[in-house]
């Protein structure tokens, strides 16, 4: 088995995780699809082409539990000579609305899943990534799911934005820290994606900008990132996101604030 083609995906049962699983299987990769949603995983496995099913490993993962991460990673790595070439920290949740209207427990849960889940994934997957890195350059990498909400804090998405800013910071720090160890670290930063996560979302920015991205578009970006050999860290998905990122870089802070105020009006 070619362990240079192994990817572990958290939150794989639906949305972006599901689309990424199907794309990488189609491309011939060994895919570990892990999630808390066992029914969703069963449906995913059912929808996979017969010829690819032997390359799909599924299992339960609660990203907020360290032991769950340890068990899931060990389970997948045993199919790949103890190595992992690509960790896709995809799992995440979103609660939207006015800050005071969202329960404190729900806001803390976002930090637990979106930040602590990424932290645990990176920390506990590192030995498997390090084992893959000895096979040569560009054989071990991490892709974290950030968001366009990490460009500037979004009203009615305050803690979601904060969680994605944290993911961005983890990505930037580990990209520097792990470079000498042969582990490439990047993040993907889409705007609103047509998934169940935004179905009931409350936010004026979504109504103004629309939902123009599909899970397949994000998955295609992740696939490009899996083969990328350059130095780019943040990958913006879609024209709107790229324009927002460019404007944030080129505009003074007061203008960035003003434009975000207008978008979320």
Automatic annotation (TrEMBL):
Which controlled-vocabulary keywords does the entry list?
Answer: Oxidoreductase
Listed SUPFAM superfamilies: NAD(P)-binding Rossmann-fold domains
Classify the source by domain of life. Bacteria
Q: Where is the signal peptide?
A: none
Q: Name one Pfam family in it.
A: adh_short
The residue stretches assigned to a coiled coil in this entry are: none
Protein family (similarity comment) = Belongs to the short-chain dehydrogenases/reductases (SDR) family.
Q: What is this protein called?
A: SDR family oxidoreductase
């Amino acid at each position: 088995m070619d362990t240079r083609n192994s990817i572990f995906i958290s939150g794989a049962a639906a949305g972006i995780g599901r689309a990424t699983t199907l794309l990488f299987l189609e491309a011939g990769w060994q895919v570990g699809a892990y999630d808390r949603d066992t029914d969703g995983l069963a449906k995913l496995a059912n929808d996979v082409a017969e010829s690819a099913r032997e390359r799909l490993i599924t299992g339960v993962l609660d990203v907020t539990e360290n032991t769950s991460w340890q068990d899931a990673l060990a389970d997948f790595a045993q199919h790949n000579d103890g190595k992992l070439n690509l960790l896709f920290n995809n799992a995440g949740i979103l609660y939207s609305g006015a800050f005071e209207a969202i329960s404190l427990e729900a806001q803390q849960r976002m930090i637990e899943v979106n930040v602590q889940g990424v932290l645990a994934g990176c920390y506990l997957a590192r030995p498997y990534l390090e084992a893959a890195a000895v096979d040569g350059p560009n054989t071990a990498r991490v892709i974290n799911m950030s968001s366009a909400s990490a460009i500037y804090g979004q009203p009615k998405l305050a803690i979601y934005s904060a969680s994605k800013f944290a993911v961005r910071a983890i990505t930037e720090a580990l990209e520097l820290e792990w470079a000498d160890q042969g582990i490439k670290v990047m993040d993907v930063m889409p705007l609103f994606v047509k998934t169940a996560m935004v179905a009931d979302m409350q936010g004026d920015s979504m109504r103004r900008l629309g939902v123009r991205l599909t899970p397949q578009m994000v998955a295609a970006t992740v696939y490009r990132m899996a083969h990328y050999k350059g130095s780019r860290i943040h990958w913006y998905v879609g024209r709107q996101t790229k324009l927002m990122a460019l404007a944030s870089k080129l505009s003074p802070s007061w203008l960035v604030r003003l434009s975000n105020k207008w978008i979320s009006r």
